[in-house]
Amino acid sequence: MTNVRLLVITKAPVPGRSKTRLTPPCSPEQAAAIAAAAVGDTLDAVRAAPVARRVVALDGAPGGLELDGFAVVPQTDGDLGTRLAAAFADAMAGSSLPTLLIGMDTPQVTPDLLARCADLLVASGPGTAVLGTAPDGGWWALGLHGAETAELLTTVPMSRADTAELTRAALEGAGLTVLDLPELTDIDHFPDALAVAVECAPESRTARVVASVAAALEPA
């Protein structure tokens, strides 16, 4: 077991609030179904990873989410950078465990991949961070040794083509060495969902739900 905390930040899957950039071509209900599948697969991978603690920073009511094995902290108000910083602070309160934060939109993650990312974070030691970028210029994972470092995220513009670059620059500007994690595609638009579903196990929620939505969207 790696002495790391895994932190998942997610919205509760609700039509009209979840994965809105999937619409169109998806309906709000289809987008929420894909979001729910991605959250479920992500939580399963985190639950199976050999780490010390698991936390979900949740926006909204749990609803049908299976959160057994996780501590749950509510997300704060504010923009994404503010919410990310607060999620780190809330999850790390009272504990010095290094923390690896991921979103819910890379459901192709596996317990083995998360374990390797966590091991790198621990082995790198204080004064470092680990960052997993996405092809669209964002990032899917960030590992830190202290919650105070996460305050830097409040200064980084999010959901842009240069978000990962700016995040790296902010971390390095604070004197940290940034180590790279594997790049993963995250689900923002429907072509992303199709690409990610191929990388998921065929029996996964994401693969099954995306295939069902794709079939429903095919012209009659």
TrEMBL record:
<dbReference type="InterPro" id="IPR029044">
    <property type="entry name" value="Nucleotide-diphossugar_trans"/>
</dbReference>
<protein>
    <recommendedName>
        <fullName>Glycosyltransferase A (GT-A) superfamily protein (DUF2064 family)</fullName>
    </recommendedName>
</protein>
<dbReference type="Pfam" id="PF09837">
    <property type="entry name" value="DUF2064"/>
</dbReference>
<dbReference type="InterPro" id="IPR018641">
    <property type="entry name" value="Trfase_1_rSAM/seldom-assoc"/>
</dbReference>
